[in-house]
Amino acid sequence: MSFLIGQNMTGGYGKGPDILHDCTIEVDKGEIAVIVGPNGAGKSTAMKAVFGMLNVHSGTVFLDGEDITHLTPQARVQKGMGFVPQTHNIFTSMSVEENLEMGAFIRKDDISETMEQVYELFPILKEKRNQHAGELSGGQRQQVAVGRALMTKPKLLMLDEPTAGVSPIVMDELFDRIIEVSRTGLPILMVEQNAKQALEIADKGYVLVQGANAYSGSGKELLADPEVRKSFLGG
Ligand SMILES: Nc1ncnc2c1ncn2[C@@H]1O[C@H](COP(=O)(O)OP(=O)(O)OP(=O)(O)O)[C@@H](O)[C@H]1O
Ligand SMILES: [Mg+2]
Predict the structure, then answer these.
(1) What is the 3-state secondary structure (H, E, C) of 39-94?
(2) pLDDT tens per residue, range 200-215
(3) Same domain for 174 and 219
(4) CB neighbours of residue 139 within 10 Å
(5) Ligand 1: which of 9, 25, 34, 44 to mutate, most ligand atoms within 8 Å of CB?
(6) Distance between CA atoms of 17 and 148, rounded to whole angstroms?
(7) Looking at the whole model, is its pTM more than 0.90?
(8) Which listed residue, 83, 93, 127, 138, has the most CB atoms within 10 A of its CB?
(9) Which residues line ligand 1 (CB under 6 A)?
(10) Looking at the 3D structure of the chain, how many domains does it have?
């Protein structure tokens, strides 16, 4: 059984129509799983379903073998989920360091070692630790957001479009850091617009279309699939 399984998830927002239809997403220890698909396909919705922010009326979410389907997002953080949402993922009027401290709010132990680890991963954040996060570049803000999630010492990291709006060079750098985090054994579930590049580093890939699994396989398999290439990867 994979470390995280969102199994046959069907549901939507409040009393609105279903957005997800029997959607299944998995990621195991040491893996990077990537969700790709067109705008509005339900990628963020699938992440929110896994994180407990959606009214999932059928399906099950398992974390480390435990059924967590009915837990609140807060309780899922306590269980080890770290989630970086697509938007509003940092406090712009707080300093970089305050953002990291806020990330650790659920911890009662000493957080200084984890903060050093985040600064080792993203040295620019150490340099800018006293600056308002809102003054940073797009790529640096994403580093703050990822760092903030790492401050809880999660057992699973979920990233919704970590490279949105950054240049190709910054994107490559962010992917390298994400691979580095993954090599520590932390499973990573990530939504990406840069589908080709993301699938290149993906152990597992999911193409979502209209809230349902359209294609899944290893990153390599999806990159080699003519249908996936033609419809989702620009040929
Ligand atoms: N808070 C919400 N309330 C109601 N409907 C929503 C909400 N958020 C998203 N939706 C709807 O759910 C569907 C899927 O949206 P979602 O944001 O999951 O897509 P996405 O694949 O993440 O798209 P993008 O690539 O633009 O980020 C869309 O039809 C959207 O309008
Ligand atoms: Mg989205």
Answers:
(1) CCCCHHHHHHHHHCCCEEEEEEEEECCEECCCCCHHHHHHHCEEEECCCCCCCCCC
(2) 999 999 999 999 999 9
(3) yes
(4) 19
(5) 44
(6) 33
(7) yes
(8) 83
(9) 13, 16, 19, 37, 39-45, 86
(10) 2
